[in-house]
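We treat protein structure as text, and this decision shapes the records that our systems exchange. The remainder of this section carries one protein's record, kept here as part of the documentation:
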Amino acid sequence: MREHYLYTDHMAVGYGGRPLIEDICLRLRRGEIMTLIGPNGSGKSTILKTIIRQLGALRGTVYLDGRPMDRMAALEVAKRLSVLMTERTRPELMTCWDVVSTGRYPYTGRLGILTAEDREKVRESLELVQGMDLADRDFTAISDGQRQRVLLARAICQEPEIIVLDEPTSFLDIRYKLELLGILKDMVRQRQLAVVMSLHELDLAQKISDYVVCVHNNTIERYGPPEEIFTSAYIMELYGAARGSYNADFGCLELEPVRGAPEVFVIGGGGNGIPVYRRLQRQGIPFAAGVLHENDLDHPVAEALAAEVISERSFEPISDAAFAKAAERMAACKQVICCLETFGPMNEKNRRLFELARQSGKLAGHAVK
C-alpha cells in the first residue's frame, strides 16, 4: 500500500486560541485528490490555511512525507507543497510570465535570477494551462479566469509533490472550470501529485475526487469516497437545504415542484421529458408525468418536479394498471404534451395515451412523427 504523503494527527484548528474544528485526521497519498465540501463558514478554508501553515494548529500535527511540517524549513516545504488560495493577487507592474516565474523562488537562490532551466519550467507551466498567449500581458489587466490559470501555472512551476487549492474554480466560466480540473487530474495521474482542495461545485467534486471530506457542525462529519458521500438525502442534510432537491445520480440541483392539482400531463421518456418538466416548473404550472419506467432518465427529474408521477417497474412492459392510472390522470388535465418520437414494445401503452390525448383535443404539443 502506498504511504500517506499528507496526514494530520488529531489536529484542531481555529482562531484566537478557540477551536473551530477538532480531531481532524486526514490521509492523502500521492496520485489522489481529496476535496473538502460543506456550507459557507463551516471551516474548509481554515483547515487548508492550517495545513499550509498560514495558521498555526491549535493542537495536533500536520505531517508531510512522514515529517512534521512545523519542523521543516520554509524553503524545504516550498519545494514540496504549492498553494492556490482564493485571495486575489494583484502584483503591480508584473506580466503573467513574471507571476509564474515567482514559482521558481525555492530554486533560484537569494538573488532570484532565473536560469535557462527555470525559464523552461515557466514556459512548460504556462503551456500546460494554455496560457502562453498571456505571457507578456499585464497580470492586472486580464480576466479573473485568466488570472486563475496563471496562478495555477505558478503553482505547477514550483514543481510540488502536493498542491493545496481553496476554491480553485472561483471566477471561472464552465470552459475554464473543466480545463483547470482536467489539468489537475492529468497531473495527479501522470506526475503522481497529491491534491487537496475545497469546492462549492458538488457535481465537479463528485466527479474528480478520490476522497471527500464533509465539514459541518464544527466537525468532520463524513470522510470517504464520493460513492459513499454523495447521496441525495445526505447532501440536502449537509447543507441544511429545506427546499428543492439534490439528485446524486445526475449531480444536479432541482427546484421544488409547483404545488396544486396537475394541469398538464407529460408523456415522456429517454430524457426527452426533462426540458419540458423544467419549463413547466419555471412557468409555475403543476404537471403529472407518465408512464415512466423507474430506470428511465426522465424518472428522477420527474420525481423532483412533478406533482404526480405514474411509474412502471424497470424492464417491464407498461401494465394495464399503470396505463389506467395514467389515462385517468390525463383525463383530469387541461393539456397533454408528448415528448416522444417513437414507441417501443416496453412503452407501447404510451402510444395509446398519445392517441387518447389526440382524440380528446387536449394535445398541446408532440414530437411523434
Notes: Residues 174-191 form the longest helix (18 residues).
